[in-house]
Design brief:
544 residues, five-stranded mixed beta sheet, Alpha-D-Glucose-1,6-Bisphosphate, Chain A, domain 3, six-stranded mixed beta sheet
């Protein structure tokens, strides 16, 4: 019998959990207790089921105790800000987290109601907390939840801190921690945070000029509605929201996969936009740190990719930035076309590893070196943007306002954002940028996926779709990349470049493809064909 399962079943004092454990089948036990959940760069994330490999009351206790043990070594009077989104169990998990911290004599700032991730980061910085803890699984499907951990400086915790906490995490007995707090109530010493912090966060210049841009905005049943609607109203924008997606719904009944990267998330918004003849649709993911955009052009609604929104932000902001040291920060999986846009404006471009721990850290370093006037944009292709100075984690809320401001300016000239993109391509050339993913299944999907990437590493690919591969960059080789080690591969083949990277939050192998061309339609068609060939290759090889 599984040792982890036996420990849970025999030693948990909470009888309601023991009942659930007794109902588990052998296959469920094997699946849910096959391994231990790990604490990584972005925190931890998993499906909401009982078991050592999932997100539940016990694994939440385990991380809370890990942070408490870490802080006890670092600070005599530590504090933590705890925030949660609209997902199922998020509020419950936030209260459990707070109980564990309290028991360890750590001051807790706890949000009364759900709030977006950018607000958690803002409040952590404002209050001077050692950590900000956000209960969220971001844009994952409804069965997921997770925890993001931020440092006092508003950036996801660095690698050194992550490793130290991870080492503590691996040695915590979550059953023991849970038994101490499951009947405990939060004390009067918890400091509750309310709407006053969200009001502080969204302070911006108020416009007196009425706008004629027609907007549909959806928070996808998540946390973004209050902040985004306030910002739009303060700037005299009028907008509509699908009523079924305005309010919180942890089941995401109207959107099974609430990820604004994908057009499926816009189904309800498109219907409303057609009724209202809206010029633009903007969507924030459940914790409102990502932004998705669709544009009406020639009476059709066209989804902009994360890279395309990045091109628009970069061109628009760089044109107006007068600093001789102006800079943009992106990741290595972002479209190389951003290089050409930066060259066009004599801007410096810096590329980091994926994830806003790397992006935010680099942005902060450069801001310190060149001053905040030099900052133009930080973004990643997966719809994460920073458009405000002295902000070091992605913020879908202010990005939503900025894209509406740009669309309004273009509308006054009789153009759409598609027209604007075309004008950018005329200056710097065209590149098709695609991304997709292949899901791995089984009892240990992350390990299976990692082994397959190792196989790709040893069995070097020589060609793809008729393109001869001239170079393979392995990001485990930090001497060659100049970056910290990360498990992914980058392939170069003339006008073609593609990247194969395991996701850090889901058992998915991500594919990023970039193809230079002169004709958009032909280049996009060819890029789709190549992407299909890459997926077929991976599917076939991963079975062998």
């Amino acid at each position: 019998m599984n040792k982890n399962f036996e420990h849970y079943k025999n030693d948990i004092l909470d009888k309601s959990i023991v009942k659930k454990l007794n109902k588990m089948t052998e296959s469920q036990i094997e699946k849910n207790f096959s391994d231990n959940l790990t604490f990584g760069t972005a925190g931890m994330r998993g499906t909401m089921e009982l078991g050592t490999i999932n997100i539940n009351e016990l694994t939440v206790c385990k991380l809370a105790q890990s942070l408490a043990n870490y802080l006890s070594q670092k600070d005599v009077n530590p504090s933590v800000t705890v925030c949660f989104d609209t997902r199922l169990n998020s509020k419950k998990f936030s209260r459990i987290f707070a109980k564990v911290l309290e028991q360890n004599n750590i001051r807790v700032y706890l949000f009364k109601n759900y709030a977006p991730t950018p607000l958690c980061v803002f409040a952590t910085n404002l209050l001077g907390s050692n950590f900000g803890v956000m209960i969220t699984a971001s844009h994952n499907p409804r069965e997921y939840n997770g925890i993001k951990v931020y440092a006092q400086n508003g950036i996801q915790i660095d690698t050194k801190t992550q490793i130290e906490i991870s080492n503590i995490f691996d040695n915590i007995d979550e059953v023991e921690v849970y038994n101490k707090v499951y009947k405990q109530k939060l004390s009067k010493h918890v400091i509750y945070l309310g709407k006053e912090y969200e009001k502080l966060y969204i302070i911006s210049k108020k416009s007196k000029i009425e706008k004629n841009l027609k907007i549909v905005y959806t928070p996808l049943n998540g946390t973004g509605y209050y902040s985004v609607s306030k910002l739009l109203k303060n700037n005299k924008f009028s907008f509509s929201t699908p009523l079924c997606q305005r309010f919180k719904d942890g089941n995401f009944s109207t959107c099974k996969y609430p990820n604004p990267e994908f057009v499926e998330a816009f189904e309800k918004s498109i219907k409303l936009a057609k009724m209202k003849k809206a010029d633009i649709i903007v969507a924030t993911d459940p914790d409102a740190d990502r932004l998705g955009v669709m544009v009406r052009h020639n009476d059709q609604y066209i989804k902009l990719s994360g890279n395309e929104v990045g091109y628009i932000f970069a061109d628009y902001i760089l044109k107006r930035n007068i600093s001789k040291n102006k800079f943009v920060v992106t990741s290595v999986v972002t479209s190389p076309l951003i290089d050409e846009i930066c060259k066009n404006y004599n801007a410096k471009l810096y590329k980091t590893l994926t994830g806003f721990m790397s992006l935010g850290t680099k942005t902060k370093e450069l801001t310190k070196e060149y001053g905040d006037i030099a900052f133009a944009l930080t973004y990643e292709e997966s719809c994460g943007y920073v458009v405000r100075k002295n902000v070091f984690d992605k913020d879908g809320i202010f990005a939503a306002l900025k894209i509406c401001e740009i669309a309004q300016e273009k509308k006054l000239k009789g153009d759409t954002l598609i027209d604007y993109l075309d004008s950018i391509y005329q200056k710097v050339g065209y590149m098709s940028s695609l991304s997709d993913s292949i899901k791995f299944t089984g009892n240990e999907p992350f390990k299976i996926m990692s082994k397959f990437v190792d196989k790709l590493r040893t069995e070097k690919l020589s060609e793809m779709s008729g393109y001869k591969i001239t170079e393979i960059k392995d990001y485990l080789d930090s001497e060659k990349t100049g970056l910290e080690k990360q498990n992914f591969l980058e392939y170069f083949a003339g006008d073609l470049k593609f990247i194969i990277r395991p996701s850090g939050t889901e058992p998915k192998l991500k594919i990023y493809l970039f193809l230079k061309g002169t004709n958009k339609e032909e280049t996009d068609k060819k890029a789709q064909e190549i992407l299909g060939d890459i997926k077929n290759y991976i599917n076939n090889e991963s079975k062998n």
